[in-house]
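Re: your question about Transcriptional regulator

S., sorry for the slow reply, the queue was backed up all week. Below is exactly what I fed in.
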Amino acid sequence: MARAATTSDVFNAIAEPQRREILVLLRAGERSVTELAQELGITQPGASKHLRVLREVGLVHDRKAGKQRLYGLDADGLRPVHEWTGGFEQFWNESFDRLDAYVQDLKQTRNAE
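Result:
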């Protein structure tokens, strides 16, 4: 069943690439909407729209600093994504184990030649 076209949850909010870019930029620390807009090459209203969505789902927080409003990452909001993707950890571990075995076989084959 297709997901509803809403940004009411974290998964839908981060489905938009520029919102993910904003989260990456905010990992380095707080930034104003103007700084984020410049770094993303988008308009300030566009950046504000993305920040509003991210704030509504609990991924960013904001605070007033003089005349500016600074936005920061609220990484705890990513917990549902982390928990969901963690369910695939066994798959990735098995894939890496198979890749490691393949590389070891390849090394042994080359050393034997």
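The chain has one domain: 1-112. The first strand starts at residue 31 and ends at 32.

Happy to talk it through on Thursday.
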